[in-house]
Design a protein that fits this description.
This protein has 296 residues and is α/β, with parallel strands linked by helices. The chain has one domain (13-292): 3-Layer(aba) Sandwich (Rossmann fold), CATH 3.40.50.1820. Helix content is 40%, strand content 17%. The protein has helices at residues 54-60, 87-100, 113-124, 140-149, 151-156, 158-162, 168-186, 196-206, 211-220, 252-258, 276-279, 281-292, and strands at 13-20, 23-30, 37-41, 64-68, 106-111, 129-135, 238-243, 264-269. The protein has an 8-stranded mixed beta sheet, with helices on both faces. The longest helix is centred in the middle third of the chain and has 19 residues, at 168-186.
Length: 296
């Protein structure tokens, strides 16, 4: 899917491909080439289009914006095998993407699984992360602890363990023209956010050859990640934006994640769901721009 009139934008966009870390990633770029670099990382079951409200705002504010389809999604490569989706590989993609822009570092903004990758990058490649922005994605140590000790969070996360099964998740998500995946979006968001005009782009992305398998492999690779790094504190300035009405993540995970940030700020959006950046774009964009050093 190339950028077109479906994306409200006051700035030109380009759709291109970059060879990074052994895979080809589809990347949307916007904003001045010499502006401060911001990389936006989507989650499940999203793709670059999930950042449609943030791309114009950040580009208009003077940032150079890179928005990849992460590996396994939409127009990016979908390598076979679960091991190709280990968190170290996903973080390596981001580091290589930053270098492909001729930069040594960037601001990272991540939502959901993209937030998980962003947390990992800030731990694995701290010198490459200028500032960190996390949207509804707990710090990995916080999430691991919650799954092990909090029955209420474990109940909310049941689908993770379902995705560990072979073949059945692909069948479930793919049947009836991805009706289950559509429910994942519509049932976890405010009514009308993922309307028919938007959903047609998601169905197109999900229908790519190998997409469903690759998206699920992100979950299947979780047990292959190995132990968390011993140094898990985040030293770069960090903003956590959290939609309080998140059906998948307990709200207390936000504050617990903040405890791992040496210089962190938590902004809660009381009426927002897991899709805080889509439901509250003005507030989120203002918070992002202020955190990254400019007024929106």
């Amino acid at each position: 899917m190339a950028p077109d009139a479906s994306l409200p934008s006051s700035v030109p966009l380009t759709s291109e491909y970059r060879e990074v870390n052994g895979v080809t990633l589809h990347v949307i770029t916007a904003g001045p080439e010499d502006g401060p670099l911001v990389v936006l990382l989507h989650g499940f079951p999203d793709f670059w289009y999930g950042w449609r409200e943030q791309i114009p705002a950040l580009a208009d504010a003077g940032f150079r914006v890179l928005v990849p389809d992460q590996r396994g999604y939409n127009l990016s490569d979908k390598p076979s095998g679960v091991r190709a989706y280990r968190i170290s590989k996903l973080a390596g993609d981001v580091a290589a993407l930053i270098r492909s822009e001729g930069r040594d570092s960037a601001h990272l903004v991540g939502h959901d699984w993209g937030g998980g990758v962003a947390w990992d990058c800030a731990t694995r490649y701290p010198e490459m992360v200028d500032r960190l922005c996390i949207l509804n994605a707990p710090h990995p140590r916080v999430f691991a602890t919650a799954l092990a000790t909090n029955p209420r969070q474990l109940l909310r996360s049941w689908y993770i363990f379902y995705f560990f099964l072979p073949l059945l998740p692909e069948w479930t998500l793919g049947r009836n023209r991805q009706a289950t995946l559509e429910l994942v979006l519509t049932d976890s968001s405010r009514p009308g956010i993922f309307h028919e005009g938007v959903m047609r782009y998601y169905h197109e992305a999900w229908s790519r050859d190998g997409a469903l398998r690759s998206m699920i492999h992100w979950y299947r690779a979780m047990p292959l990640a190995g132990p968390l790094p011993p140094k898990t504190r985040i030293r770069v300035p960090t903003l956590i934006c959290w939609g309080q009405d998140d059906g998948a993540l307990r709200p207390e995970l936000a504050a617990k994640s903040l405890e791992y940030c040496e210089n962190g700020t938590l902004k809660r959006f009381e009426r927002a769901s897991h899709w805080v950046h889509v439901e509250e774009p003005t507030g989120v964009n203002e918070a992002l721009c202020a955190h990254l050093g400019v007024e929106s």
